[in-house]
Amino acid sequence: MTRKGLGKNHNKKEKIAILAASGFVLAALTMTGLYMREQNELELDDGYTIDFDALEESVESKNQEIARNIEKKELESPIIPEEAPKVAEAPKENNKKPVEKEVPKEIEQVSPSAEPVEETQTPQVVPEQAEVPEAEALEADTTQVLNSPLQAFDETKGLVRPLNGEVILPFSMDSSIYFKTLDQYKYNPAMIVSSEAGTSVLACADGQVSNIYDSRETGKTLVVDMGGGYTMTYGQLQDVCVTVGSYVTAGSMIARVAEPTIYYTLEGTNLYLLLEKDGEPMNPQPLFQ
Questions:
Q1: Is the pTM of this model over 0.70?
Q2: Domain extent for 196
Q3: What is the CATH number of the domain that holds 202?
Q4: Which residues lie closer than 8 Å to 277 by C-beta, 6 or more apart?
Q5: Which residues lie across from 172 on neighbouring strands?
Q6: Mind listing the pLDDT tens digit for each residue in 187-225?
Q7: Is residue 88 one of the residues assigned to a domain?
Q8: Which sign does the torsion angle of CA 187, 190, 193, 194 carry?
């Protein structure tokens, strides 16, 4: 044979040998796997396998036993449900009783105690205490009136002119007159006399100063009670030299004329005079001497 033929035969033998070896190995592995599987199954069967049927039977038997025990307890102890409501009712009755008792007790305690309190308070004491100072006050007032030099104003004696000046706005309650500053017609319950700032203002009659106040319309204002329900109000003043409660005589100085308020800027500096009888304005012009 030639060398080529020998080489081919040798290659074929090697392939056959390889195939045979690989088949043997596969067969050995297969046998080994089967053997291991059988061993695992045997080991599981030895104690690690779970029997579900047995478990279900045991669970059912346990449930039956529990149910039987519950029925036995209910039959053996029928008193328990009767005692339970008694125990629950007891606190309810206890809660209701004190509430019902406490409420009427409080009412009974308050009502009788309130009556003696009212009796002990003796409301008669209050009017007695109130009457005493009132009586004293009345006596004091009467003594002041009796000792007061103020006498009722007599119209026949007339009034003293507070200053010399022209009447720029006369008393007018029957018809309206024109006010320049206000630019309107209206009634005038007072008499407005023109004068210069700083001019002395004299008391028109005897009387007692009853009030001194500030007004936007009449500025510093002074009220003199002349007795008999007559009062004279002086407005647009400054440097007032009398006080509330003091007595003035006719012709005595009581203040000075001030600059006019914004209600009389166009009318100019003036004295505001308001004569009233029992609260009703009246014209002082006819009474000036």
A1: no
A2: 155-287
A3: 2.70.70.10
A4: 229, 230
A5: 188
A6: 999 999 999 999 999 999 999 999 999 999 999 999 999
A7: no
A8: negative
